[in-house]
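User: For my dataset I need records formatted as: sequence, then structure tokens, nothing else. Please produce one.
Assistant:
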Amino acid sequence: RLDNNYLKKLPEDFFSNFPNLSILSLSDNLLESIPENVELIEKSLFSLNIEKNHILQLPSKFGSLSNLKSLKVSQNYFSILPTALKNLLKLQEFSLDWFKYTKPTHPVLLAGSEGMQVLMQLFSLLESIEDVGETRCCLKQFLDFFSERGVHDINTLLPRKKTYLHLAAIN
């Protein structure tokens, strides 16, 4: 566990130093990125928690973490999901704060049978985006897909309730 350590950056060779790492928790830090070579631990990693950081982009290589059962990425700054996340078929737990902005809202933490149904819907969305040659899902696409009537008007929120994610979706 490397939680609450004010970490701003991980060394680029971080994952090569821990080839058998099975659980990694980096929550409550100041990280802006995750090293791209995360696939070096694709066979061993079962749980990854990077909540409550300043991460601007999730590596597309996250999709190679085929044994991942728990992925927690909420409370970060990214406004794009890599479509490769659809490959994480063993996930049993997934947190993403984007769900709290949908209408109706979904839990931030997806778990259990109901959560897995929502997760499969997310994988379906990512697959459909990938089918048209795109490799990223933006927040607006996500909100439109998961909101009633297929359209989410982010501008209807009061200015003081808009978060970083709201502003990213508008731009």
